[in-house]
Each structure stands twice: as structure tokens, then as C-alpha cells.
Write a structure and sequence with these properties.
By secondary structure, the chain is an alpha/beta fold. The chain contains ten helices and twelve strands. 29% of the residues lie in helices and 26% in strands. Helix 3 runs parallel beside helix 6, helix 4 packs across helix 6 and helix 6 packs parallel to helix 7. The longest helix has 14 residues.
Length: 304
């Protein structure tokens, strides 16, 4: 079934079938969402990450196998796929967060601006400064709003001309300044969930990263807060490279420039289900003309 035939003026139906209803089919469109425009006139973009045959192990368990892809500068790349397919495992490899998990091991090559991210002499702390992370659940420090933003720059020894200006700029770039400018000394835990997540984004921005990784940043948020985070991502894309893990097909279609679909399938010789990259392409292609039937089945709700 050609999903392109379902498009109408740049819109693509993304179906969530009711699996308890045997009559449900992809012809019964229940949810529609816009697919982000792919119109670009500036030619090829710079490659920020280049992954070559990446395997990830937790002890003897192969969690992710054979991933090869490129992530481009000033784009939003979405990782989608069912639970257990290795999306979060892979995004944590991009700033070496998996180093903190006992027994975790990465094989293959991950290059960041043509430098081996796991090479000898590479400082993982500096990696995490350049490649920030925003987690699924907002995790502000139990400090004031001001101190949440100022903490990172102080720890890494940044010497801005004015810490007050750095805090304000970070909060402005996270679209939070107008809401908190009169209560910077209040505890950050007093903010709403959506505000806390934007605070965490501002905290990541404050140390001047190159890349922002987001692991399901909206899963704990209401639709209004989710919309604000999505708008913010599109603003931040001008200055940062963003990689997002999401289970929300509509979100991936709306905000990302490229989409990678992962699946968990039995590994040859073991029978264990391990993650693998099924398809990676421009988002409009993934959502309108996927090359692999597994991708089509997943985004139309027939997967499983």
C-alpha cells in the first residue's frame, strides 16, 4: 500500500488502529498530522555523527547490532520504533552515557566531527559538555531556578562576562524567561512539568553545547506543554543539532528532518531479540514512501 496515495496537500494520515477491533484498517484514518517540509536549497549539510556498524552489548547481551547512519548539522533526527529496539541505547552512545552502565560495551565506530568518540585520550566529560542530554522525566536540581542554570557553567570553569546575562540568555533560548524572570530565586521544583523540562533544556544550553540529545522529552507532559517543547526544538534547530527519541509518530513527523526506524528482531544464532536499524531517510520519505514494509506497518499502526 503506497502511503503517498493517502497524502493531501502535504498531510499524511498516521493511523493508530484499535487492535481489539478486527475491522480496523489503515483506510480508517483516525489521526492526521503534518509532515515537516523537506524543502532545502542550501545543498548537502555537514555530518556531525557518522556511525559505522555499531554494536552495543550489556554484558553478554547484544542490545543493538549493525547500526550505520549519519546525523547532520542543524537538523532534528528522530529515532522511532517499539520498546526494546535500542533507541535509547543508541542515543546514550552519542555522548558516552553508556560508559556509566556496568558491563556496557560499544563496538564499531562512532565519529563526531570526524573524531573517534571512543578513541584513546577522548575525555567523556568534555564529550558530555559538547553533547548535552535532556531526559524523559524532567530532572531539575533541588536548587533555585537561577542556580540550576548557573551550576553547569561554574562546574566546568566557564567565565562568562556576566553570569546573570548567561542565565537570562539560556532561559530566553528555552522560551522560559518571561515565565520565570520574576522568580529566579524560587526552587525549580515549584515549576510545572513542562516548565521543568524547558528549564532542563536551558540548563543544557548554558554550557554552550554543539548537540542536544532528547530521550522522549515529552512523554511525561500534557499536550500543551508538548506543543511548546516541539516549537522550541524547531527554534533551537537553527543553532544546534538535535537528536530525539520518541514513541509519538505525530511528533516525529512534525518536527524531524530525518527519521530512523528501529525494530527488535531475533539475532542469528541466539534467538534473542536485539535492536537493529530497519530504515533511515528524510522524514517525508519515511512517512509517505517507506522502503521497508516493516516501517510502513509500524507508522500505520499494523505493527506487532
Amino acid at each position: 500500500m503506497d502511503l503517498g496515495d493517502q497524502m493531501a496537500q502535504g498531510r499524511i494520515p498516521v493511523t493508530e488502529d484499535d487492535h481489539n477491533d478486527p475491522s480496523a484498517t489503515t483506510e480508517g484514518v483516525r489521526i492526521e498530522t503534518e509532515v515537516k517540509s523537506s524543502d532545502r536549497t542550501d545543498g548537502p549539510t555537514e555530518v556531525v555523527f557518522r556511525l559505522d556498524d555499531v554494536h552495543v552489548y550489556y554484558g553478554s547481551f547484544l542490545a543493538l547490532r549493525g547500526v550505520t547512519l549519519e546525523i547532520h548539522k542543524h537538523e532534528i533526527t528522530a529515532f522511532i520504533g517499539p520498546s526494546g529496539c535500542g533507541k535509547s541505547t543508541l542515543i546514550r552512545c552519542l555522548n558516552r552515557m553508556n560508559d556509566l552502565i556496568p558491563g556496557a560495551k560499544v563496538e564499531g565506530k562512532i565519529h563526531y566531527h570526524d573524531q573517534d568518540l571512543y578513541g584513546d585520550g577522548v575525555d567523556p566529560v568534555e564529550v558530555r559538555r559538547r553533547i548535552g542530554m535532556v531526559f524523559q522525566k524532567p530532572n531539575p536540581f533541588p536548587k533555585s531556578i537561577y542556580d540550576n542554570i548557573a551550576y553547569g557553567p561554574k562546574v566546568i570553569g566557564m567565565r562568562p562576562a556576566s553570569m546573570e546575562e548567561l542565565v537570562e540568555q539560556s532561559l530566553r533560548r528555552a522560551a522560559l524567561w518571561d515565565e520565570v524572570k520574576d522568580k529566579l530565586k524560587q526552587n525549580a521544583l515549584s515549576l510545572s512539568g513542562g516548565q521543568q523540562q524547558r528549564l532542563c533544556i536551558a540548563r543544557a544550553i548554558a554550557v554552550e553545547p554543539d548537540v542536544i540529545l532528547m530521550d522522549e522529552p515529552c512523554s511525561a507532559l500534557d499536550p500543551i506543554s508538548t506543543g511548546r517543547i516541539e516549537d522550541l526544538m524547531e527554534e533551537l534547530e537553527r543553532d544546534y543539532t538535535i537528536v530525539i527519541v520518541t514513541h509519538n509518530m505525530q511528533q516525529a513527523a512534525r518536527v524531524s528532518d530525518r527519521t530512523a526506524f528501529f525494530n527488535a528482531e531475533p539475532a542469528e544464532g541466539t534467538g534473542d531479540r536485539t535492536g537493529l536499524l530497519v530504515e533511515y531517510d528524510r522524514t517525508d520519505a519515511i512517512f509517505t514512501h517507506p522502503a521497508d514494509r516493516r516501517t510502513e506497518d509500524y507508522i500505520t499502526g499494523r505493527f506487532g
